[in-house]
């Protein structure tokens, strides 16, 4: 073979080699991913066949571990499924079927208790399997690592808050719905009492809630207590019931309870409120708080005394009992007016009347704040009342140097004290004042005798008598001083006769003042109006001894003097006052009888002498009827001058005006 042929064959051989190399390269390129996939699957294949290569004893032992873990785990999963099955029922409205709802809720609680008890056990068995697999290298390490992380997370969750979240919050949602139903039942059956300020004595049913509602509330409380949510139910109960009591009290217009000490203008400014306060407090305690007390017992009796008493204490405090006590404290702290003594006694009487109710309703440890406020109020009332009572004599004596009324009327102090002491000795106040004085002295370990009260009041009356004797001397006008004495002696007689105080003073004392009135009425006339008739003398006119002209001049002069004296007397006494209507009318008659008949006769006999005179109006100035009319306009109290007993004010001194004058003694005639 020639060299050319050999080259051709070599060329051909090279080309075939190149083609094979290209084909092999393409094959290798296609096989690369498959080889990579095989390389990745080799470890898992190795792990899959590892148990085959594992120790036969180890493989047999793991079966037992798995069987022990599967049982609890399967039970837990089954209960979890059951919990989810309860979700629809528990998210419905309990009012539609409360007993059924509570039964389902109880099943949920039982399921959660099972899960709480068994989840830890299942986790423990799984951890045991994991540990066995690791020790015996029976599973892939990556698989075991993932399983270990999962079990670690489950264990931490179970140790921290897992028990509370095993149901995904279903229990909390169900309990929230129960609390809403608890609130609804209370609200819909808590109706304020239909009443007004004129109808405080509204009738109260034996229980403010129907028995069926109470039973439902108790059933709800049972489940709430089982889940440690009693406090939330109590808060709801207190809010609803206290709000209901407040709504009942709002009809009574209790805004006055909010009056502060700085707003006080004296006890008189709120005297009417104090009377209402006693009635309103009695109504609140005997009806509203009594009903709440019974209802708390009915609803919470199965839970325990401490619970329902605490609940009632909160209702009482939030509903307004503290405001009632604070109002009494405000009155006790206000300035010391004598009239305040009666109001303090009213407050004490109201509290004393409710003493047994207060002890029964608010006597427990839960009502300690109410007890303390009540005791403090009683202490302030007793101390304040005793202080005012024992200082009253001193206050009366202090008024001795103040001026008497410029119009000669009865001083406010006299009318106030006579009425005041009569009321203190009356059936309404004497037993209360006596009890207050007894308690106050017992605090000092001193005994009280009733004569102390009586003697103190008699000393006050004696001090008033001394004041009257002192005041009359301050008048410059003698007639006015007699008018003043006439007024005051008659006032003491008339206003004390037939009274408890009058009986203590005795008939002799009363008779002396009646006689003194007559005595000073005589002196009053003698020093004033009784002087006028002498001015109408008939001397020199009987026989017209000097002639008609002379008689006319005498009549003119005498009428002029009479008119001037009458006008002066009338003008002066127009500002004087006789306080008692009967005494005023009697005094009118004394003046009329002393003047008018004489004037009428004089004018009938001698009037014609001046009536024809061009200036007759200067002399025949009055008719008898005119004089009588003018006289009966005297001594009338001016409107608004004399306040009632309730309106009299006291601020350490009584307001009276004065001057100085002497008078004869009624026994010195």
Question: How is the topology of this model organized?
Answer:
Layout: H1 3-53, H2 56-90, H3 98-135, H4 141-162, H5 170-189, H6 211-226, H7 230-250, H8 271-300, H9 305-319, H10 321-333, H11 338-353, H12 355-361, H13 368-398, H14 412-425, H15 430-443, H16 450-471, H17 478-496, H18 500-505, H19 507-527, H20 548-573, H21 581-611, H22 624-631
Keywords: Exocytosis, Protein transport, Transport
Protein name: Exocyst subunit Exo70 family protein
Family: Belongs to the EXO70 family.
Average of per-residue pLDDT values? 80
Number of E strands: 0
CATH topology of the domain at 271-507: Monooxygenase
Shape: elongated
Sheet/helix structural class: mainly alpha
Q: Tally the helices: what do you get?
A: 22
Our estimate of the beta-strand percent is: under 5%
GO cellular component, one term: exocyst
Protein name: Exocyst subunit Exo70 family protein
Keywords: Exocytosis, Protein transport, Transport
Pfam family, one: Exo70_N
Brief account:
The chain is mainly alpha-helical and 669 residues long.
Description:
This protein is mainly alpha-helical and 669 residues long. It contains 22 helices and no strands. The chain is elongated, with a radius of gyration of 54 Å. It starts with a helix and ends in a 38-residue tail after the last helix.
